[in-house]
Structure formats: C-alpha cells, structure tokens
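Q: what sequence does this backbone want?
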C-alpha cells in the first residue's frame, strides 16, 4: 500500500518540540540510531509528519531523502495522524474473496477519506491490513480494538454512526 502524506496541517506543541530536540541531541552523533530516533519521534507525535522528518534530518546531519526513505520503507511508520477511531480493514486473501474491497470502498465513501488518511476533524482514520487472524469471520474490520466480522458494505453506515454519536 502506498503511504500518503497527511492533508491535516502539522501542529507542534512546545513540549513535543522540546522532547524531540532532546532525543535528537542524545543521538545526533550516531547515524545508526536514526531508526530509533524516528520511532521515538513517532511516539511523541503519534505519526511521523514531514516537518518532523526534516527536523530529524537536520539535527542528525543525514540527508532528508534517507529519513524519508526509512519512513516510507518500513510499515511501522505512519505519515498520517491516526484518528480517535482507527479503522482497519483486512484485505488478506480470505477477507478479500468475501468482499473486503467493497467494504473498504464504502468506508472510504462514508468517511470521505482514502486508505492511509484521517478525517479533517481527527475523528476517524482508515487503513488496510493483510490479516488479523479472524479469517472465519471475514470480511473483517476493526475499530481500535473492537472486531467486526461477517460484514457487508451495507453494515458500514450503522457502525460508523455508533462512533459518531
């Protein structure tokens, strides 16, 4: 799946900026610590916005292309913020053959966002995963830690309404 940059403007608090700077300072002389710095930065912000990647590159004196390359290569990094409700649609083989793609399309339509994106109000984010181990319940989606199975595209509006209320 292609990673997308966030459409939501980056917001940084002084506390977050100070914490990031402290992490960069502690690791700036060891380029082998780049991934750890990026992981710590993602913990601070909840994702790895481009502006943070720039700060890391500058502070650790590594090319921005390298930081961006690591961020886009490893699945653990997200360049979009997660919503209060993170929705993940399983697109693994068992779920896919049972209609998961139409489920993902309906979610995208109802939420007004694509995979890898977050609604402008920060309420919902949408992503795809490969398998959550509930193949017998396919197609499956999760909302945070709650699992929904044996779904059809027609179930989407009701599930989303539950979280909007």
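A:
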């Amino acid at each position: 799946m292609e990673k997308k940059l966030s459409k939501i403007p980056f917001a940084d608090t002084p506390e977050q900026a100070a914490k990031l700077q402290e992490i960069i300072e502690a690791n700036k002389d060891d380029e082998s610590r780049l991934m750890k710095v990026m992981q710590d930065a993602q913990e601070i912000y909840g994702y790895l916005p481009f502006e943070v990647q720039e700060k890391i590159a500058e502070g650790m004196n590594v090319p921005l292309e390298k930081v961006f390359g690591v961020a886009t290569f490893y699945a653990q990094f997200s360049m979009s913020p997660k919503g209060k409700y993170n929705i993940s649609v399983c697109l693994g083989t068992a779920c896919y053959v049972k209609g998961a793609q139409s489920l993902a399309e309906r979610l995208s339509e109802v939420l007004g966002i694509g995979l890898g994106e977050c609604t402008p109000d920060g309420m919902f984010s949408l992503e795809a995963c490969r398998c959550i181990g509930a193949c017998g319940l396919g197609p499956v989606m999760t909302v945070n830690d709650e699992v929904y199975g044996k779904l059809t595209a027609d179930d989407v509006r009701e599930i989303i309404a539950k979280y909007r209320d």
